Amino acid sequence: MYQYQDYLEAYGRIMQFNKNKSEPFHRWYPFVEGYSKEFIQSIIEELDEKPQVCLEPFSGSGTTALELQTMGIKCFSFEVNPLMYLIAKVKLENDYAIDKIQHYFEFIKQERTNSNIAEVKTTFKTLYQKEGLKKWNYNASVAIAIEKIHLAIKLIDDDKYMELFTVALAAILLDVSNLYRNGKCLSYKKNWKDRNITEAEVFDKFDKKVNEELLVDIRNNKIMALVHNKKYLYHEDSRVGIQKTVTDNSIDLVITSPPYLNSRDYTDTYMLELKTLELTHTNEEVRKLREKTLRSHVQIKWKDTASIDNQLLHETLRELERATREQTMWNDSIIDMVRLYFVDMKSIFSVLYKKIRTGGKIYFNVSNSAYYGVMINTLEICASIAENEGFKVIEIRKARYLKTSPQQKNEVDKLLEGVIVIEKGIDQ
Ligand SMILES: C[S@@+](CC[C@H](N)C(=O)[O-])C[C@H]1O[C@@H](n2cnc3c(N)ncnc32)[C@H](O)[C@@H]1O
């Protein structure tokens, strides 16, 4: 029913964040779940007219708003996770003074050298090595080194620079910890108990981040930003924030990639940074943050009974129910998650329809999923939800094929990741 276009070659590599890892500013934090700045460039290049105002409902590390800023295009963005929000905010700041960075950098070095803390306290049980624990995220020497840097950063009297150095610290945390990001969650590194990272090594990694990336990129930056997208970045749930903030019929272009329906919880994946940097203080705060995220994961038992009227979704849910009668469920919230993910999608497309001007477009990057051997055609379900809200679906671009998990492999071998191109037509 939908027109599929083969963009496997054009989009294959640029739909991953990897390419950003060597790009000034974008590289400050090694994000995983994003696309590259080339994806944004390719969209702007193919449009007949340069857009004036864009919108990114799921900002992540800020790739969309940052790239648009360098092109002089205004972009509203929304992000619910405090870590991603902070990273995007820091990358979008376009007025750092090199002498101030150097001044505060020297201050941090001095403070951490003078510090004599011997123990670090936290409400999170397994964050730091402690007697009686079987597992811990940071060895004691690493924990103390991080705390010394963090305490010094917190003493900086200018928020802009305090946040800049916090992102530099955030960027090295996983590396110096005993963990690695393992798809949906954090797992312990091989032989983690034998790792022996000294305080000096932690300091050195932090200093390298500042010297070789932050300072280099800010010093070399020749772009005079004509817009400042940091002003339009909101730390809010986009399901409610867009309606309150953005004027109706004002948006020319939306470029976005929502959380995929892959039961990955960003709160979990970035838990190490959230806890260490005190972006969440207690387990209760972590739970509250999860509640605000799009319902693409099963870390919460969703009680909402809402559903949407969509034939393809109904068929998929029926197939899932059939499949779960024949197999043991690894989590009994999966079907609720699938149902509610599309309830959320409907509320997003509904608010986008109000905010986009006639002739405006959406580039919506998402992938299909599979559970219990049932393929969930997220691309087509989202396309039909968008149509029901009044949009016209121009095409679905095939970007990449993703491998399925070993449990799905027999029934569903690979999953299409794509870009739905949508327009708000004239006669809607
Ligand atoms: C796939 S990532 C976006 C990546 C982004 N394109 C980039 O390149 O960095 C999806 C983001 O949506 C955020 N998110 C989840 N639920 C949200 C909500 N209700 N409102 C706003 N952001 C949300 C997640 O925290 C995550 O950072």
From TrEMBL:
PROSITE patterns, A to Z: N4_MTASE (PS00093)
Gene Ontology MF, one: DNA binding
EC nos: 2.1.1.113
Gene3D superfamilies recorded: Vaccinia Virus protein VP39 (3.40.50.150)
Alphabetical GO biological process terms: DNA restriction-modification system; methylation
Superkingdom, natural source: Bacteria
Coiled coil spans: none
Record key words, sorted: Methyltransferase, Restriction system, S-adenosyl-L-methionine, Transferase
Catalytic reaction annotation: a 2'-deoxycytidine in DNA + S-adenosyl-L-methionine = an N(4)-methyl-2'-deoxycytidine in DNA + S-adenosyl-L-homocysteine + H(+)
Keyword Iron among record annotations: no
Record-stated family: Belongs to the N(4)/N(6)-methyltransferase family. N(4) subfamily.
Official protein name in the record: site-specific DNA-methyltransferase (cytosine-N(4)-specific)
Biological source species: Anaerosporobacter mobilis DSM 15930
Taxon lineage: Bacteria, Bacillati, Bacillota, Clostridia, Lachnospirales
